[in-house]
Write a structure and sequence with these properties.
By secondary structure, this protein is of the alpha+beta class. It folds into 2 domains: 3-140, Jelly Rolls, CATH 2.60.120; 153-225, Arc Repressor Mutant, subunit A, CATH 1.10.10. Helices cover 44% and strands 22% of the residues. It has 9 helices and 10 strands. The chain has helices at 3-11, 20-28, 86-89, 113-122, 124-147, 153-167, 178-185, 189-201, 217-225, and strands spanning 33-37, 42-44, 52-58, 61-66, 72-78, 99-102, 106-112, 173-175, 205-208, 211-214. The strands form 3 sheets. Strands 2-6-4-5 form a 4-stranded antiparallel sheet. It has a 3-stranded antiparallel sheet with strand order 1-7-3. A 3-stranded antiparallel sheet has the order 8-10-9. A hairpin with a 2-residue loop joins β9 and β10 (211-214). α4 (113-122) packs across α5 (124-147) and α6 (153-167) crosses α9 (217-225). The longest helix is centred in the middle third of the chain and has 24 residues, at 124-147. It is globular, with a radius of gyration of 20 Å. The protein starts with a helix and ends in a 5-residue tail after the last helix. The relative contact order is 0.13.
Length: 230
C-alpha cells in the first residue's frame, strides 16, 4: 500500500487511533478495494445487501429515501473520514434501509466484513472506534425520532440549544452544523436558516460562523415550552 493511501486511511475515524506501523503491515496483507464515484452516482439502493465496510476517503455521500411519488429526502450526509452504515453491517439482516448517492466526487475504501472483523481482533482501538461510531449513529437516529414529535422548527431548535448548553456546562457559545441540524430535525436547510434568522432578529441568539451564541435563555425556554407558529 502506498504511503499516500495509507495516510488517508489512517486519518479515518475508525483507524486513526491504531498504531500506524502495525496497521500498515496488516493492511499490506489484507484484500481491499478502492472505488471512485462521480457526483450524482447511485452507489447502493434501499434493500441492497450491505456486507462490507465502506469508509469515505474523499468527498461526500448522501443517504436518501424516496417515496412512491418520486420525492427524495436526505436522511444524512456522510463526509470524508466517516464509515458508512456500520450498524447495518453487523445487523442480523444486513440490508440497507436507505439508498446511497455520491453528492460530490467520492473515493471509498472497502473491506469485507470478515476481513474487518479480523482487523478489529488485531487492533482493539479499531474495535473501540467502531463501537463509538455505532453508538453515535444510534443516538443520532434516536434523537431524530424524538425531535420529530415536536411541532415546529423553532421549538426543536430551542430545545436542542438548551440541551446542548446544559451538556456543555451551561455554555452560551455552541458549535453547530446547520446541515447536521437540518438532518436531525428532518427539515430543509433553508427552512432551518430562516428560523435561525428569526431568532437572531428577536435578539434570542447571535450567529458567528459555525457558533451560536445564546443571548436570551429565558426566551429560548419559552419557545421550547410552546409549539406556537413558525
Amino acid at each position: 500500500m502506498n504511503p499516500a493511501l495509507m495516510a488517508r486511511i489512517q486519518s479515518c475515524l475508525l483507524f486513526c487511533k491504531a498504531d500506524p506501523a502495525d496497521l500498515a503491515r496488516d493492511l499490506d496483507s489484507t484484500p481491499y478495494r478502492i472505488t471512485v464515484h462521480d457526483p450524482g452516482e447511485m452507489l447502493l439502493l434501499r434493500g441492497d445487501r450491505f456486507d462490507e465496510l465502506m469508509v469515505i476517503l474523499e468527498g461526500r455521500l448522501r443517504a436518501v429515501i424516496d417515496d412512491p411519488d418520486g420525492h427524495i429526502m436526505t436522511v444524512e450526509t456522510l463526509h470524508a473520514c466517516e464509515a458508512v452504515a456500520t450498524s447495518i453491517l453487523f445487523a442480523p439482516r444486513p440490508f440497507l434501509p436507505v439508498s446511497l448517492c455520491a453528492e460530490t466526487r467520492a473515493e471509498l475504501f472497502h473491506l469485507s466484513r470478515q476481513t474487518f472483523l479480523e482487523l478489529c481482533r488485531r487492533h482493539p482501538t479499531v474495535l473501540q472506534s467502531l463501537l463509538s461510531d455505532m453508538g453515535a449513529r444510534t443516538c443520532f437516529l434516536a434523537n431524530r425520532l424524538r425531535f420529530s414529535t415536536f411541532t415546529t422548527i423553532r421549538q426543536k431548535l430551542a430545545i436542542y440549544l438548551l440541551e446542548r448548553s446544559r451538556q456543555e456546562g451551561n455554555r452560551r457559545e455552541l458549535p453547530v452544523s446547520k446541515q447536521r441540524l437540518a438532518e436531525l430535525f428532518g427539515v430543509s436547510r433553508p427552512s432551518l436558516s430562516r428560523v435561525f434568522g428569526q431568532l437572531v432578529a428577536e435578539g434570542v441568539v447571535r450567529l458567528s460562523g459555525r457558533e451560536v451564541h445564546i443571548l436570551d435563555v429565558r426566551r429560548l425556554q419559552e419557545i421550547a415550552e410552546t409549539a406556537g407558529e413558525e
